């Protein structure tokens, strides 16, 4: 059976606790020349379609324009409800994907805060220069952890987090989320083959643009370099 060609358009960004989701309206021509459509939701800092959750086909109309018109009439509360329903229907994989996405979002925000704007700065004196390089190095380390997490399957990452925390769960709405998340990040960081600061600084000063492009792609564009 031939899969109908799908068209998608971005319709909204939704907040779900500490997470941000991109919402897409997906349409396709079905049998008897009718059009169908559904909503797909992708977590922030995700670059693979398998991280998405979706609704059932909730639109059936004679034209694509009719679907677009009906979709525009839906408000954010209803879209958030559809997201919650899609997450529930997707079961354990959605939960594990959600956990991985939350870690990547937290790492990205922390890394961007450390790196700053990446604009060339007039640093007065070697002390400020070293301080700036150390901030960029810490940002680089967080990016490496985030990159690694992205390469791990969602279910495997959830199992690893459970093992690292010895059965404790992370509630990202609770005050202890930073402490537990830091335990997981430190565990991964210690096992990555990362360069020491002096080695990294020498390479950074020789190839600053390569590092800036890497950080921009991972932090700002939310995809793997």
Shape: elongated
- Rounded Rg: 21 Å
Structure summary, number of beta strands: 5
Number of helices: 8
List unreliable stretches of 5+ residues: none
Question: Mind describing the biggest β-sheet?
Answer: 5 strands, antiparallel
Structural class: alpha+beta
| H/E element order | EEEEEHHHHHHHH
N-C termini distance: 35 Å
Give average pLDDT, whole number.
80
The amount of beta strand, in percent, is 15-25%
Q: How many discrete structural domains?
A: 2
How much helicity do the residues have?
40-55%
3D structure, described in words:
- The protein has about 220 residues and is an alpha+beta fold.
- It has two domains: about 80 residues, no CATH class; about 130 residues, no CATH class.
- It contains eight helices and five strands, in the order E-E-E-E-E-H-H-H-H-H-H-H-H.
- A hairpin with a 2-residue loop joins strand 1 and strand 2.
- Helix 3 crosses helix 5.
- The two termini are about 35 Å apart.
- The mean pLDDT is about 80.
Q: How would you summarize what this structure contains?
A:
The protein is 55% helix and 16% strand.
